[in-house]
Amino acid sequence: MPGAGHLHERSIGVALFITAEGIEGSGKSTLLTALAERLRDDGIDLVLSREPGGTPAGERIRTLALEPEQAIAPLTEALLMQADRAQHVAHLIAPALRAGRWVLCDRFTTASFAYQGYGHGVPLDTLRTLAAIATGGLEPDVVLLVDIPVELSLERVAARAASSGRVTDRMEREETAFHQRVRDGYLALARENPKIRVLDGKRPAATLLEDALGIVRAAAKAK
Q1: In angstroms, rounded to a whole number, what is the distance separating the alpha carbons of residues 13 and 222?
Q2: pTM of the model
Q3: What is the mean pLDDT of residues 8-27?
């Protein structure tokens, strides 16, 4: 059932573009799925998507980019992610927003700055230029950054792989120092950008969801 103060009126503002970010195993995907369910209960027409992926072409790029045995140079990785993003914006995100539908996306440009920038050393100015071209200048209204320590990230990834039998992907197999650089990068980006809201990923899922809902409701009222 919709909670108190739920978003049930489209007059509350135009469609929001919300993204979730975080290192591996942060719980961002679980949070975004739960958030989408609550917003739909509130009468919000929305699209739930992810990057890389989100379109047929994007899913093929995702397979290539995350294939465990694939050796990919940092700039090549950055260009693959931006190619995926350009397709995603053109064929899913922008049309949905124009139609008045909210878009909730698991990763977007902030991930490129954290992973390819802070993680792999591609200059941030280069990544920002590529992102501006790929997105046509489109930016999220809200970025929900689910933050956890790297040690917890590695534990969760290992537990998830063991329980599901799924092979860990190329990003998950990166060295610990890489994941620490990515986490540090995310937090640095959050200090620079007020749209990036840091959530404590160690908190219970239900509490995390309520925190996210509060942020999203405030953004919707302010838009």
Answers
A1: 8
A2: 0.90
A3: 77
